[in-house]
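Intended use. Records like the one below are meant for learning the mapping from a protein sequence to its folded structure. Do not use them to infer anything beyond what is encoded.
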Amino acid sequence: MVDAVRPEIGEATVAVLEDQGVKVEFPAAQTCCGQPAYNAGYRSEARAVAAHFLNVFDATSGPVVTPSGSCAAMVHHGFADLFGDDPAQLRRARAVAARTRELSQFLVHDLKVTNLGASFNGRITYHPSCHQLRGLGEGTAPLALLAQVAGAEVVPLAGAEECCGFGGLFSVKLPQVSGEMVARKTANIDASGAGVCVTCDAGCLMNIAGRLQREHKAARCAHLAEVLAGSVPA
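Structure written out for the chain above:
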């Protein structure tokens, strides 16, 4: 989704990592982690895509960093399920999962940094994606990073832990329910008075940003990497 919908998220991620002295390699052969097919119940198709993912990243060394809590959760949990009956592939899956980090996790827990020298003049709020919060159990790292953004006033978001209604194929299969969920989310963003809602997943970002635009709301939605890279205009 980053490549197809918001490539600037990927660019911001690389900029943030390189600014911290990290040498970034982007394997050109990489594709999707297989989560859409997995969530839809197409296990054989998901296994094929996941196997390709393993082939690509098993040949690398060092941390595998993604600007997506949902992708990281898929590698950590979905791969173990998909390859549970294949000992050889399961070993590879567990080895890659052990190196896989969502961006904020890598910055805070691995690099031990929270102040990246970022600045933003305005009020921001944070929406934790379901896979980030519940799949990875990561609720603090993004907020620790945002708290150090100079000039930014971080305000709470009512119902922050509620799903935005995207849920991958959920929003396609149950659009009416999804629409009501994201409407509640954008109403809470509007009530917070924040000019920007920050999230760590492109799916949530696309869903929330689209609804804000259709409702002609002043608030925007941005990825955490964009805020940290200073690429979100005030």
